[in-house]
Amino acid sequence: MKVRPSIVLAALAFAAAAHGTSAMLTTQVQNTLTAIDAVPTPAEIDQGFVDPTSALTSLAAIATDPSTTAVASDGVGMRVRALHALASYCTAPCADSDTAHQALVQFITSNETDMTGTTIVMLRGAIEALGPQRVGTDLGLLVSMLSHPSRDIRAATAHALRDLCNTQAIEPLRTQQGQETSDQVKLAISEALRVLSQPSPCQ
Amino acid sequence: MRRGSLLWLVLLTGCPASSGGIGDRCGDTADCSSQLQCIAGACAPLCVRAPDCGAGYACDSSGYCDVSTAEVGEPCTSEVDCEAGLACVLARDPDAAGNLSSTCAQNSEARPAGAACVHDSDCHNNLCALGRCVDLCMDTRDCVTGTSCVAIPRVEAAGAMFHGCLQSQGTLAWTIPVAASVQTIPLPIPDNAQAVAVTLAVDDPNQEVAATSLVAPDGTPLIQPGGDPYSDAVRFQPALGEATLAMPSSLATPLVAGAYTMTVSSLRPPYTATDVGTATPSVTAVIKLDTSILLDLHFYFLDFDQFPCGDTAFANAAFSAKPAQTASFFQTDFLGSVRSILAAGGVALGELDYNDLRDHPDLDGLDVANASELLSLGSASDGINVFFVRSLSPAGLQAYGPNPGPAGLGGTAQSGVIIPLDTLCYRSWADLARVATHELARYMGLYDNVEIDGVHVDPIDDSDQSSSNLMFYSELGGTDLSSGQRAILSRSVVLR
Hints:
The complex is a heterodimer.
Chain A: E1 14-16, E2 23-25, H1 27-32, H2 42-46, H3 55-64, H4 72-88, H5 99-111, H6 117-130, H7 139-145, H8 151-164, H9 170-179, H10 183-196
Antiparallel strand pairs in A: 1-2
Helix pairs in contact in A: 3-4, 3-5, 4-6, 5-6, 6-8, 7-8, 8-10, 9-10
Chain B: E1 36-39, E2 42-45, E3 57-59, E4 65-67, E5 86-90, E6 102-106, E7 128-129, E8 132-133, E9 147-154, E10 160-167, E11 171-176, E12 182-189, E13 195-201, E14 208-215, E15 221-223, E16 239-240, E17 242-247, E18 258-267, E19 282-288, E20 294-301, H1 310-313, H2 321-324, H3 328-344, E21 348-356, E22 365-367, H4 371-375, E23 384-389, E24 391-393, E25 417-420, H5 429-443, H6 483-490
Parallel strand pairs in B: 20-21, 20-23, 22-24, 23-25
Antiparallel strand pairs in B: 1-2, 3-4, 5-6, 7-8, 9-10, 11-19, 12-18, 13-17, 13-19, 14-15, 14-16, 14-18
Helix pairs in contact in B: 3-5
């Protein structure tokens, strides 16, 4: 058996560029946020940053600001994972004002009309991450996404409304179900309605 | 095994001199032309294997058929030693020296050699091993074509070895009976086995199934009860519902012939080794008997209509099983890259087939929590099933699959790997090929050279923790494989 390699933290979490408009990510952060078949834990993400206490704000910056990612083509994958990771930095019930929650909301509101493929992928990740935080004020934002042109976004939104566990989502879900054309979304809505219609949903 | 052909025993005419041809009458072999012999009064070809001579004969090293003469109760070492109508039957217990003797006995009317069996009594010679009726032998000449004389452990006799005729190539699968939620079972490995995959399963998806201990034939512990999977000589991770143990997982612990002993158990939360569950595990063992390197892939395509980046990923055309068979982005960019990466690992792509799964809209955008529902649709039991879905949740996952996956079993909760194609919104098909091959290699028994925690490493001595390695956990990794990794990969039981 081999010995364990020592954990070498990178020298800098963010090496700010000369003008401070962009930042480079350490190799460890890049690798952690590009894992193929594993979801990094907050602890695994934290250890990539020199100051683990800054991990959340750094993660929020990666998720919402494309200029923080080193290479644009790699950046999308990292941002998707950063968006997802934000959910684990503020577990339900999360405060509306929490940094992790605010970053997700900001991303969704800034990109909800962008239909490019890369944005759809990231938007789906953000919506998926928002539901489990169970912030009541997200109901309106999520309901508005139920009519998004992308069936992938509509399906993700139905799942997020399920995870939000707010029975006020039942009516808009039923409305969308009546006009939905995608079987994928219809089934996601049915699943959400099944959960939300239980006597004590999400208990 | 006395089912050799005697087709050359035809009606005879005259008794020629030494020029007798096949079927001509003869008094002895001198009456037949060269390369022929006299059997039962007729000239016949020299034999390669005993069945060429017919029942009641052995085939010697010169190709001549020798009449079997051992009678009931007399010792034998091979099925061909005994007279026609008799079988060479293994003693129940080993002698003082630990060897198993055998004697000729009346053939029963039970199943012949090669037939599937569960109990010894299922077989004509009262010998069931590895799920097959096995005839005793001394040499491969004693065995029917397609089989070889190999050493096999007799688990009913403390693992004492005997020689039996076993299929020479391909894979051999059998079920090991388990009657309780925790039980120690034998795992016999014949000496022609290259690798073994043992798949454990329980019906309850909320219970884990585990190999809580594994002991080598020489008594060496390979999996320690309650031990750390990353420290054990053979790596195994318990899992909910189904888990597979593959050996060898490193060349430092090679697979050896003999009777391994394994304790299997279902586990309930919190899933420590002492939290024995209520479900009874089922155990299927599959051994690879040759050095074949062909990997068959069975592709399944879910619904990609209205795909977010269909313009760039699918060249603005509909994408499903049929176009995938001709589209250059799939055939060249993706499969060409997969083929190239695998070739460097000593594996070649074999047969490929393409299937649509358009009537499962609930699985188009898949949550890994429902992965077993999709994987169980992978009906192919050979090679690996590969499922292409629109997206995978949690977002960011680019692949999902067991590590390792079951061999020789289709339709199980872990029968394949899953690749979400929304990765193509920011990655190329060639990039996706590296991701897919990484996941295929995990299915085949390789582990991440270094895990995402940065601490745990694979059990292969010569693989480093470089990001240039195929098994690096990040999508930013390379395609290199160490010699040890190549050796494990090319031994995978999913290869044919």
